[in-house]
Design a protein that fits this description.
12% of the residues lie in helices and 46% in strands. The protein folds into 3 domains: 71 residues, E set domains, domain 4 (Immunoglobulin-like), CATH 2.60.40; 214 residues, Thrombin, subunit H, CATH 2.40.10.120; 77 residues, Pdz3 Domain. The chain has 4 helices and 31 strands. It has a 6-stranded antiparallel barrel. Strands 26-27-28-31-30-29 form a 6-stranded antiparallel barrel. A 4-stranded mixed β-sheet has the order 1-7-6-3, with no helix packed on it. The protein starts with a helix and ends with a helix.
């Protein structure tokens, strides 16, 4: 019996230790907040988060809630029972900002940093035997090849040329696997037409259409889509080297139905340049505007970015262009708000209620991602996803998250 209770006590102790470890790991090391924004970090008994300078940051005892006071870089200290320091949290307090919601459909062209591995296949050598040169190298679909024999690989042509120059000798391939740079050796296979191949299918660019969410006049930056661009084969976020944002002409709209999302079809041929894309994140794509006239924005519509505490359930509007004309406002309903969500782009559950928009699209369709949402004269977020079984409903990301991403654009 005593042994049983000892085991029970050990399990209880390990469970508590595990819970504390998980909570500590989830406390971020870097936080970006707006001036006056409340952020909540869930803690457990004994874990305290305190400002090193009380005049800069106030920390309440309510689950680590912190209220930003001064603009600039600040530090918080996470400790256990005010005795054991666990980690520092860097807090960057940025000023309240105004943006111009856009709502125009635009074309996107992304060029990868290296080449993305999207598939693998056997190679038939000039001896009519089948080979898998990639086998046991560690390379997987979704990895990015950045160098071969110390030569930078920027395109599929670079890879083909470098592998052919090897004449069948082992090549050293440097690649990125889940944000970790790795290296391996591969022996190319000579085919019947005297080419050398690795058995890897790769891609170096991607294209599509989406909606420009906002333009930030003071930095000339833009945000769009509200979600990242992933590779169609690997479903991994594309690691980009550069990208272009260009105007598009809408050709057709397919209405959404239950189980079958609709889409906007557009062309980027003979269109104008908008700007350059430098960031592809899970919260959208971001860059600099080079040709402001191509956006056809109304500068009189400049408005504040709402803090999430200011967002309310109920009526709001989205801004989008569906007929190659000036964007129009359509009514929506905000059904749920997930104020503590900083981890993905499903910050709000929304529903399309405007009969004009439902008549045109059936609800949220592909290409509308990034449509800005406005409530009480403030920019509060952007459309990101549709619920496949009900195209009238979908998700949206907070505007403060998108703007914080844009602030990182150089």
């Amino acid at each position: 019996m005593k042994r049983f209770f000892k085991m029970l006590l050990l399990v209880f102790f390990l469970s508590i230790l595990y819970s504390y470890t998980l909570v500590i790991e989830k406390i971020p090391e870097e936080v970006v907040v707006f001036e006056g924004e409340n952020i909540t970090v869930k803690t457990l008994l004994g874990i305290n988060i305190k400002g090193k300078n009380a005049e800069t940051l106030e920390t309440s005892s309510n689950e680590g809630e912190k209220i930003s006071e001064n603009i600039g870089n600040n530090k918080l200290e996470v400790n256990l029972f005010d005795r054991i320091k666990l980690k520092d949290v860097d807090v960057n307090v940025i000023p309240r900002t105004t943006v111009i919601p856009v709502g125009n459909i635009a074309g996107v062209k992304l060029y990868t940093s290296g080449v993305l591995v999207v598939g693998m296949s056997e190679i038939e050598g000039n001896d009519n035997k089948k080979y898998k040169p990639y086998e046991n190298t560690g390379i997987e679909e979704g990895d990015t090849i950045i160098k071969v024999n110390d030569k930078h690989i920027n395109s599929t042509e670079d890879l083909i040329e470098t592998v052919n120059l090897s004449k069948g000798e082992d090549v050293i391939v440097k690649y990125i696997h889940q944000e970790t740079t790795k290296e391996c050796s591969i022996t190319p296979v000579k085919t019947s037409n005297s080419e050398y191949k690795l058995g890897l299918w790769v891609r170096d660019s991607a294209a599509g259409v989406g909606t420009v969410t906002f333009y930030e006049p003071s930095t000339k930056t833009f945000g769009a889509l509200g979600h990242g661009i992933t590779d169609i084969d690997t479903n991994e976020l594309i690691n980009i080297a550069s990208g272009e944002f260009i105007t598009t002409r809408i050709l057709d709209i397919t209405k959404g139905e239950s189980g079958n999302p609709g889409k906007i079809q557009g062309t980027v041929e003979n269109q104008k340049n908008i700007g350059t894309i430098s960031k592809n994140s899970r919260f959208g794509i971001y860059g600099k505007v080079d040709n402001i006239s191509s956006l056809s924005i109304d500068s009189s519509k400049e408005m504040e970015v709402a803090l999430r505490e200011e967002i309310q359930k109920g009526k709001a509007t989205i801004l989008c262009s569906l007929d190659n004309q000036k964007p129009q406002e359509y009514e929506i309903e905000i059904e749920k708000i997930y104020k503590d969500n900083n981890y993905d782009n499903k910050s709000m559950l929304i529903k399309i209620t405007d009969e004009r928009l439902l008549e045109k699209t059936g609800g949220i369709i592909q290409g509308m991602s990034g449509s800005p949402i406005i409530q009480n004269g403030k920019f509060i977020g952007a459309v990101t996803h549709v619920l496949v079984n009900d195209p009238q409903e979908g998700y949206a990301v907070f505007g403060d998250i998108m703007l914080k991403q844009a602030k990182e654009v150089k």
